[in-house]
Amino acid sequence: MQIDISHIPQEPWVYLFKDSKGTILYIWKAKNLQKRVSQYFTPNSLWKQEMVAKASKVEFFVVANESESLYLENNLIKKHKPFFNCMLKWWNGYTYIKLTEWDFPQVLTTRNKRNDKATYIWPKHNTKELKKLMQYLRTILKYRTCSNSQFKEWKICSDFYFWLCGWWCEKCKNKSELPQLKEEYKNNFHIFSSFFKWNTKPIEKVLLSQIDDAVAKQNFEWASQIRDIYMHIEELVERQHVELWKNLTWYVLAIKEIAYSHICVLLNFYEWKLIDIIRQEVSIDDGDIYWIKSWFEAEIWDLNTQEWNSAFSLLAYSNKVSFNKEEKSALINMLEWFFDSYVISSTLQWPWLHNQLLEQLQNRYKFKNFPNRIECVDISHMNWDWISGWLSCIVWWIPDKRKYRKYKIKSVSEQSDDYASLKEVMQRRFLWKDKSEYPDVFVLDWWIGQLNVVKDLCKESSEFYKVFHQVDFVSLWKWEARRKSWIWLASKRWHEWLVWEKIYRFVDDKFNIEEISLVYDQADRFLVKLRDEAHRFSNSYRKQQMRNELKSEFKKVKK
Is residue 318 part of a domain? Predict the structure, then answer.
């Protein structure tokens, strides 16, 4: 199997090896996908050589964090049971927090998720850290862990003497106080459950009050322990959307038009657990999106069309499932990641789907070069102080961070000028150190004024005029997109008031400029993401400059 490792991103992913028939041979996860996959193809490697010999295709799914990669890997292995996977095939899995349905709910950790009306939270892949966290919460909130039969005996257990329980069983002997006790326990339990639902504010208030009480009693050792928990409370909560808590079984079908194909992504949820992902490419000539939907309905389920977002040509799900705002946003982000990872996966085998997208860009904006390598520059400043520039680069649709560049503006000091800063960056990029490796398309952030900087450089330098004939210089007008990074998701009802973004390009050697409105399909979305990447990193470099300068000033004052 021949594979170009340089096209693989260096991010957390779940990857699959498939044979020529599409059968999954092996599923695993990686923090850095490029490093992990390269281990299979290095000379004299002993990693799963029998599997690599049978494999003809590598696919991968992008995820938000390491937890999502672990849970998705676990679910996919249990669903497909690949031949070359030895672990996670059967009942063994990750640890859940179980909340029982009793009047005084019990809190347990378990690896078996059952349909017993209890609430199951997370799972958590690091069981050791989870048990440590549960011990801290138990000490603070005093919830019970004893069995229901033991609790009904109203006998004090050893947990009380270790300050791990609120003595609920003994208090319940007085039945007249039972409603008040239930309400008190319910409030404590709400703090506990809300923490695992990513709402940390209630437990932060409890921690702060307990720190004050410990300090008042001069119990400084206990106060320092609670303080350490408080300082790291956000790190203990990691959001993931591969396994949620609602007991629902349903399908989600999303169809997006990419280049000359319809890309279909089908998500299979079982008890709100994502157990399978099916991605399929259908040529536009073979049928429209409603024909594709009817085909999936005939094979799988009745699908109800929902137009939450025009990023998808069609978004449908089975059963009548109600979603809140956060769940909708998480589902749409997840689908976007799966679409993007499918495009990137196509760089590893022929035909290359991203080639069609780049061809669309070339034809739409009349680039003289095939836009294989695209660079974008952005200037950042804070009230015309700490001026900096950042250059982002994408090669074959994948960000190449080795070719990113930081520029600390030196020539503009007394009279700050955005155009002069851009001029310095372009001189340093094309006329100095990096001039040997030119991009196919160079994107400037903003509009016509930035293109006039290119015009001025061509008149001043014959060497830059040669660069002008080799590189396509365009400017991308951000306007509303700076405030709405999801501009490409614009729906039809916004058309009356939305100010569309535009691209400006040189038409000829006489520097005549043409204005073209963006279409906001997948190809244009690629350009907007590149521009946003440059803007984000230029701001990060400016903030770094500000921190360094403030540190140096502080050292001078201290001396």
Answer: yes
CA atoms within 13 A on the CB side of 15: 24
**142 and 106 Cβ atoms separated by less than 8 Å:** no
- Best CA proximity match to 544, nearest among 407, 354, 441: 407
pLDDT bracket for residue 554 (50, 70, 90): low
Regarding whether 528 and 426 lie in a shared domain, the answer is yes
Burial class (CB in 10 A: 0-12, 13-18, 19+), 56: middle
- Tally the domains of the chain: 4
Cα 485 to Cα 488: distance, rounded to the nearest angstrom: 8
Can you say whether residue 88 is alpha, beta or left, with left for phi > 0 and alpha for psi between -120 and 50 degrees?
left
* Final residue in a domain of this structure, among 328, 348, 368: 348
Based on the domain organization, do 372 and 402 belong to the same domain?
yes
Residue 440 has what pLDDT?
A: 92
Q: 425 and 505 in one domain?
A: yes
pLDDT at 7 over 70: no
CB-based contact 188:142 (threshold 8 Å): yes
Compute the distance between CA of residue 111 and CA of residue 74 in angstroms, rounded to an integer: 13
- When pLDDT is cut at 50, 70 and 90, the band that residue 260 belongs to is confident
Q: Token pair 């693989």 is at which residue?
A: 8
Mean pLDDT for the stretch of residues 488-492: 41
Largest CA distance in the chain: 94
Residues 400 and 529 in one domain: yes
Strands 441-445, 385-395: pairing kind: unpaired
Residue 221 backbone dihedrals phi, psi, to 5 degrees: -65, -45
